[in-house]
Write a structure and sequence with these properties.
Helix content: 25-40%
Number of helices: 3
Shape: globular
Number of strands: 2
Distance between the termini: 27 Å
Largest sheet: 2 strands, parallel
Radius of gyration: 13 Å
Length: 91
């Protein structure tokens, strides 16, 4: 995780091990589960902050950011995955 600007330590530090919920990789070969991404985004950003995912694939990070009230910038080279991410976040 990289931060820019006024970086703050999380009010509640993350544990060394976080639960991982298998997504089934239905949308992307390396799809991340949204419930596993949310604690990390919540710990290191504030509502309204921008979350950057330069390899957004199916948009799991973007969806987690949206759920938590963060803005996002997603970059994806593959047009098919870009469309999947757009549809997923819009739903």
């Amino acid at each position: 995780m990289l931060l820019k600007g006024d970086a703050h330590k999380p009010a509640e530090p993350l544990p060394d091990v976080l639960p991982w919920f298998y997504s089934g990789n239905a949308l992307h070969p390396t799809q991340k589960p949204v419930p596993s991404l949310k604690p990390v985004i919540e710990a290191f950003t504030r509502p309204g902050d921008i979350v950057l995912d330069p390899f957004c694939g199916s948009g799991s990070t973007l969806l987690a950011a949206t759920i938590l009230g963060r803005r996002y910038v997603g970059i994806e080279l593959d047009a098919a995955f870009c469309q999947k991410a757009k549809r997923r976040v819009a739903a």
